[in-house]
Amino acid sequence: MVPTGRRCDYLKSLVNCLGFEKRKMEQETGLTKPAVMIACAAMTLLYVAILYAPSLILRLPPPSSLKEFMIRRFVCAIISSIVSIILCALILPMRSREAANLFGVYGIRFDHIWQAVVIPLSLTSLMYAGSFCLKSLLLMESWKEHLNEDGGLSFDCVKHLLQNFIDWMSSAASNVLAWRNYVVAPLTEELVFRACMIPLLLCGGFKIYSVIFLCPVLFSLAHLNHWMETYIRHNYSMLKASMAVGLQLGYTVIFGSYASFLFIRTGKSFLVVSSRYICFTKFLLSRVHY
After folding, report:
1. Which one of the listed residues 223, 229, 234, 289 is annotated catalytic?
2. What distance in Å separates the CA atoms of residue 6 and residue 15, rounded to the nearest whole number?
3. Is 223 an annotated catalytic residue?
4. Which residue, 281, 2, 274, is CA-closest to 113?
5. What are the E-state strand segments in the chain?
6. pLDDT score, position 248
7. Distance (Å, rounded) from C-alpha 280 to C-alpha 178?
8. Cβ proximity of 46 and 83 under 8 Å
């Protein structure tokens, strides 16, 4: 169900921060649909183009390792996100630029936290209920091999599980790709393509249905750079590269629509990021921008 009227908490919060009536949003804010679309397109272009700035604009020497390459892109993604946040704050005619208002507009809120987290994340997990059940059964089967005579887990088994978990955490913390997949990409992408663009589109007079469609389209267009990378770097044929990237774009649009719905319905950015983690670990989103 698409949120409308009094059921849309985020829209009410946005209206309250701006100090305007919902039905007169476009007229009173002075923002037009072409203007906000240009702003959103500019943020999309900036997010992708700045990733190539170190080599094309700054003329830095090629990175000597994958770690150096990824760190450069981390810095570029963070800079573009900060610029988008500032741009959004300047464009939105908020009646007060206090931190509480800014945080509310960007979805950094903690009211009704349990309802906004448990229900949507449970809904997201339902898509992978079969996989979760299968893995749980496999895990239980593997535990049976380590049961002692009393039917409980042996000390060596518990110690082995803890050691594996610590090793996994240590490996992930030192893995630059893990930082990309689980920290930098989710946070920066959701800030730009959800937290910044959705309030702009709503204030520009777009209907909620349109916003849920437009945000994932812009989000997916930002992945088009993968086509060139796949076509050139991996030496794929044009058809094979188009099919691979096209499949990814389709998944991106589906997830982007769902993420936009969650953001508008709950007004909480971290919830969207959490849902993204669930989808990412189940390989729905298999690649990111960089």
Report:
1. 223
2. 12
3. yes
4. 274
5. none
6. 78
7. 12
8. yes
User: Hey, how many other C-beta atoms are within 10 angstroms of the C-beta on 270?
Assistant: 18
- For the question of residue 229 being annotated catalytic, the response is no
Total count of residues recorded for the chain? 290
String of DSSP letters for 124-177: HHHTTHHHHHHHHHHHHHHHHTTB-TTSSB-HHHHHHHHHHHHHHHHHHHT-HH
pLDDT of 5 reads: 43
Phi, psi at 153, each rounded to 5°: -75, 135
Q: Which of 112, 189, 226, 234 is catalytic?
A: 189
Q: Give the tens place of pLDDT for each residue, 230-280.
A: 766 667 777 777 777 777 788 888 888 988 998 888 888 888 888 888 777
Instruction: Quote the CA–CA distance of 229 and 253 in Å, as a whole number.
Output: 20
Question: How many Cβ atoms from other residues are within 10 Å of residue 286's Cβ?
Answer: 12
Maximum Cα–Cα distance across the chain: 74
Q: What is the pLDDT of residues 105-144, one digit of tens each?
A: 888 877 777 777 787 788 888 877 777 787 778 777 766 6
Whole-structure pTM value: 0.79
Using CA atoms, how far apart are residues 18 and 157, in angstroms rounded to an integer?
57
Of 93, 110, 82, 108, the C-alpha closest to 17 is 93
Least confident of 11-20, 97-106, 183-192: 11-20
